[in-house]
Amino acid sequence: MDKPVLHHAIDIPRLAWERLRRAADDPADLVRLVTLATVTPEGLPAARLMVLRGADRTTGRIWFHTRAKSAKTVDIAALPACCVVVYDPAEMVQLRLVGRGSLHTLDDLARGHFEHGALARERMMEVVAAPLPDLLWPGSAEELRHAVKRQAWQHFTVVEMVVESIEWLQALPDARRRAVLRAEEGWRAEELPD
Ligand SMILES: Cc1cc2nc3c(=O)[nH]c(=O)nc-3n(C[C@H](O)[C@H](O)[C@H](O)COP(=O)(O)O)c2cc1C
User: Are 19 and 31 contacting, i.e. CB atoms less than 8 angstroms apart?
Assistant: First the structure.
């Protein structure tokens, strides 16, 4: 692997969004494993690992997949504040995204992710399949598969985060650069003192 070089501030907006998109699109890219932090209704912090499922610079949005009933969906429904932390070890870059999350269940956005995200859908089907009685299932294997898919769809939820700002930190052994990118400024990178 080549040694990472310190990136110029002017390249940071493109590099940041490209890196997010590449991570979301490539199932083999470990950078897609990110930390999503929320705030509980009691005002406590809560964080967990999530797979990044999509990122789009033009709309300033990123997406995750989850189940309809979980602690994080309760948090986001009560308070949309979200923070996502990403680390790319090859470039030694940390990204901290701050924004607002919303939940999509049984709507067009969820439908698009459910139909096009084959891997995610298979995984969700495994998660929700357990309560279905395959031992006493009266129908065919094909009918069981359809029932599982229907059940997975009922639970399938997309978390959409509208990103308001991204803090970029590149920390090389001998040099550092920190910058903030804001949606309202077209993601222009403003360098910050270390
Ligand atoms: C490697 C890894 C990837 C994960 N990816 C997801 C994910 O994409 N979606 C999800 O809902 N939970 C994912 N989880 C589980 C969450 O970290 C968390 O334990 C679970 O969603 C319950 O979180 P909550 O109680 O805060 O809602 C993942 C866990 C690990 C270890």
Answer: yes
**How far is it, in rounded angstroms, from Cα 50 to Cα 153?**
19
| pLDDT tens by residue, 95-115 | 999 999 999 999 999 999 888
Looking at beta carbons, which pairs linking 77-81 to residues 24 or more positions away fall under 8 Å? 77/103, 78/40, 78/41, 79/38, 79/39, 79/41, 81/38, 81/39
> Rounded to 5 degrees, what are φ and ψ at 66?
-155, -170
> Which of 51, 74, 76 has most ligand 1 atoms within 8 Å of its beta carbon, as the pocket-test mutant?
51
Name the amino acid, one letter, at 40: T
Tokens of 61: 């949005």
pLDDT digits (tens, 9 = 90+) for 168-191: 999 999 999 999 999 999 999 999
CA distance 171 to 105: 39
Q: Where are the domains of the chain?
A: 9-192
Q: Is 72 in the pocket of ligand 1 (CB under 6 A)?
A: yes
Protein residue whose Cα sits closest to atom 11 of ligand 1: 66
Task: Count CB-CB contacts under 10 A for residue 29.
Answer: 14
- The fourth-level CATH superfamily of domain 9-192 is Electron Transport, Fmn-binding Protein; Chain A (2.30.110.10)
Identify the CA nearest to 73 among candidates 40, 26, 24.
Answer: 40
CB 187 within 8 A of CB 164: no
